[in-house]
Design a protein that fits this description.
- The structure is a single chain.
- The chain is mainly beta.
- It has two domains: about 5-85, RimM (Elongation Factor Tu (Ef-tu), domain 3); about 95-160, SH3 type barrels (Roll), CATH 2.30.30.
- It contains two helices and 13 strands; from the N terminus they run E-E-E-E-E-E-H-E-H-E-E-E-E-E-E.
- It has helices at about 70-75, 95-100; strands at about 5-15, 20-25, 40, 45, 50-55, 60-65, 80-85, 105, 110-120, 125-130, 140, 150, 155-160.
- It has a seven-stranded antiparallel beta sheet. Strands 11-10-9-8-13-12 form a six-stranded mixed beta sheet.
Length: about 170
């Protein structure tokens, strides 16, 4: 199966004629419409997206087979995925979040700190969630060039220079 990348999420109904509120996770938000058929995480539904307008924090859209407010509300919270091969290739200094998950994290001295569990963004900037056997708690490290000078996807490792006291 082709690797799937999350490109958006449905926020619920917009109006009474089956439109939905849609949040795009794409670098160019409107590109979500260009990736063809999107699937739900479990693969149970395949939907095409046609953007109909914009709202604060996202878009309004029509999805195939969704004709009523009730059908649209039933999709609230569903994440939409596109096959990786439909997405644009990235420059060397950019990454899809999914590429970072599971990578080993080392400090600049070569000591293993843990693994990336997830990449989060709560509005200010991206954060790497790092967990490991030697850590009491999960660590959230800012994903900035200063704190994360090296990401090497070929070797599966990230070199970090964390602020003092973070680990």
């Amino acid at each position: 199966m082709t690797e799937l990348i999350c490109v958006g999420a449905i926020g619920g109904a917009f109006g009474v004629r089956g439109e939905v509120r849609l949040k795009s996770f794409c670098a160019e938000p409107a590109d979500i419409e260009t990736y063809g058929l999107l699937t739900t995480e479990d693969g149970s539904q395949t939907l095409s997206v046609h953007l109909t307008g914009s709202v604060k924090g996202g878009f309004t859209a029509r999805l195939t087979g969704v004709e009523t407010k009730e059908q649209a509300d039933a999709l609230r919270g569903i994440r939409l995925y596109a096959p990786r091969d439909r997405l644009p290739s990235l420059p060397d200094d950019e990454y899809y979040y999914t590429d970072l998950i599971g990578l080993d994290v080392y400090d600049t001295g070569g000591a293993l700190l843990g693994k990336v569990r997830s990449v989060q963004n709560h509005g200010a900037s991206d954060l790497l969630e790092i967990h490991g056997d030697g850590l009491k708690n999960t660590v959230l490290l800012p994903f900035t060039l200063t704190a994360v000078p090296t990401v090497d996807l070929n070797t599966g490792r990230i070199i970090v220079d964390p602020p003092d006291g973070l680990f």
